[in-house]
């Protein structure tokens, strides 16, 4: 009986956390005037296994940003979808701009995750 329970637990665990996702597109708006908003979620739409999330950020005016994603899989809890944006430029200016970043992600199951931006949980209110 213990072997059967162990086998069932392994199957449930592997199916619950075997979700492969891919960032298929990352877009950034041009620099606009600083708004004092910080990181927030502007828009979130899921169509099948495709998720589009638009976030806000305030960042150095001269920065060049790349986006990435990471899905931390957790058993018996919602997974964590971490959206990151990182500056890869070597040039900085003495100004801050407001940006909007749009992430298009494929392979994610609907509402099976919490959204984090650069490691911090961000709640989305429609």
TrEMBL record:
<protein>
    <submittedName>
        <fullName>Uncharacterized protein</fullName>
    </submittedName>
</protein>
<feature type="signal peptide">
    <location>
        <begin position="1"/>
        <end position="18"/>
    </location>
</feature>
<keyword id="KW-0732">Signal</keyword>
């Amino acid at each position: 009986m213990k072997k059967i329970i162990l086998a069932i637990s392994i199957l449930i665990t592997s199916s619950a956390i075997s979700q492969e996702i891919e960032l298929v597109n990352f877009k950034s708006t041009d620099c606009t005037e600083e708004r004092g908003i910080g990181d927030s979620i502007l828009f979130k739409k899921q169509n099948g296994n495709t998720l589009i999330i638009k976030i806000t950020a305030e960042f150095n005016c001269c920065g060049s940003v790349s986006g990435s994603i990471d899905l931390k899989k957790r058993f018996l809890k919602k997974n964590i979808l971490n959206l990151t944006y990182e500056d890869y430029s070597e040039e900085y200016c003495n100004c801050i701009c407001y940006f909007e970043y749009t992430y298009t992600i494929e392979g994610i199951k609907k509402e099976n995750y919490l959204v984090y931006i650069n490691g911090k949980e961000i709640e989305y209110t429609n």
